[in-house]
Amino acid sequence: MAIIEFPQDMKWGAATAAYQIEGAAFEGGRGPSIWDTFSHTPGKVKNGDNGDVACDSYHRFEEDIQLMKELGIEMYRFSVSWPRIFPEGTGAVNPEGVQYYHQFVDALLANGIEPMCTLYHWDLPQSLQDQGGWEKRETVEAFAEYAAFMFKEFGGKIKKWITINEPWCVSFLSNFIGVHAPGYQDLQLATTISHHLLLAHGKAVRRFRESGIEGGIGYAPNTEWNEPFSSKQEDVDACRRATGWFIEWFFDPVFKGSYPEFMTDWLKQKGVTLAIEDGDMEIISQEIDFLGINYYTGSVARYKENHDLFDVEKVDIGYEKTDIDWNIYPEGFYKVLCKITDQYGRVPIYITENGACYNDEVENGRVTDDRRIQYLKGHLAALKRSMDSGVNIKGYLTWSLMDNFEWAEGYDKRFGLIHVDFNTLVRTKKDSYYWYKKIIENGWFEIG
Ligand code: BGC
Questions:
Q1: pLDDT, tens only, 208-218
Q2: Given the residues 22, 166, 227, 248, the one annotated as active site
Q3: Most buried in the list 248, 289, 366, 378, measured by CB within 10 Å?
Q4: What is the pTM of this model?
Q5: Which of helix, strand or coil describes residue 241?
Q6: Of all atoms in ligand 1, which is nearest to the CA of residue 165?
């Protein structure tokens, strides 16, 4: 048995995203997003699920905030639905949408919970997609305008801002692998989009500074760890590329003002060109106030010629997996955090997502999700090890407050501390909810 203890000033929280929980897809003047289109396209989402109703948090936010309060979280990470603010992406503002988020943020503050607001968690207004989406620089400008509007409107209330959630997913997962909206399979397109997302991030940071509002801003890239199967140079290099796709590709431009050569060389060989215009890298590399890090999984991997994009294959050496089939790999969390600190300095970090999919159901009014508790224990121990190694962790926000619309997996995959019955919308606190509440109260837990 060991006691894992966190500093007193560590912030504890939970995270969600608009399309995954809000529902009310056709209410309150909201315009359609690419996720409405995608989820209503047959065959794109498991069981034909969509986010029309989701957890109905749009209507039930007061109940949800009471659940947060009882849980004891100090910070709540949510995202704003861009098409609720600008139904067409640009142009006319939707006052009802603005009013909704004011009510919501006011209620959080009244309950002593600090809002952390993500500006883009994947629900691009469909009208912008119709004009080319993130492939176009006009979308970058539209995002900067939307961000500036939000800073002006919510300045003083919201003090923690995240520009883009998981730019890797928005670019490569959605436009090269093609399993998320809009669902293209085009490496050139995805790479261009990755650059435009970084540019959108940089422009929003600039607008934030110009706004003069109080608070801090960052972005939330998703990370993964790939551990070389052997010390053979080809395995080491293959893993460097596989991890670099998540880390260096999305961090070097922000922290160093350039793309990593080992990655650009590789992508060039694949026929990809990068459309960098004069001034782009200066905009992208604006100083940020904190980093949001999302981490779920890692793998052992090795070189395999002509396999996938980076000549790398994952090797299943028998890791336990969560119910979404992702390896449980807390060591990777530790390594990712140490690598980021080694390469980019002691940037203040909030873990903006970390959590596990387990599909435990309600039995006699209780959800016994011990496996989620074990997962969280392992990852929090890894987090503490990273802090003891000098990683500058400010807070931890678990994914997710409640079960929700898990993108291409629909309602089939549950990540919440709170169970949601998607027929009745009844919320039930899981065992992990009570366990997390205790950590927040005590600042420590026992493991081993
Ligand atoms: C996303 C969440 C998602 C979670 C679990 C992250 O990629 O930001 O929206 O639900 O992982 O898949």
A1: 999 999 999 99
A2: 166
A3: 248
A4: 0.98
A5: helix
A6: 8
